[in-house]
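pinned: reference chain
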Amino acid sequence: MVYETIASVNMSSGLAAPFCYVNNVTGVASSGASSFFALVLVSIWIIFAVGSYYFQKRSYGQADLPQGVAVAGFVTAVFAFMMRLVKDSAGNHCMVSSTSVGVAIAAAIIGVLWLFFSKD
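pinned: its structure tokens
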């Protein structure tokens, strides 16, 4: 089995070339799906949810977890949409799949619903 190396990628094709390479290397051969950028989106969601929660706790003395989850969902959906716009030199979407964008949008909707229906 021949693996793609970083030397085989045309780095002058744009700033997205190294990211597309990482996505191709970490992809599952049978399905073509990669979990690398899905895990990046999960880490963005966790960082913004926890960061927003502790920022509120430090600034105001009390924190609202549904608000932090809603903010994290919105930010993650924006990042997922921006990652979906990146194309490689062949014109294929190379960073995240449309399923990952859909999951990020669903997480944002669930966070907003939790915020609206929370008791506070």
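why pinned: The two ends are 57 Å apart (CA to CA). The mean pLDDT is 84.
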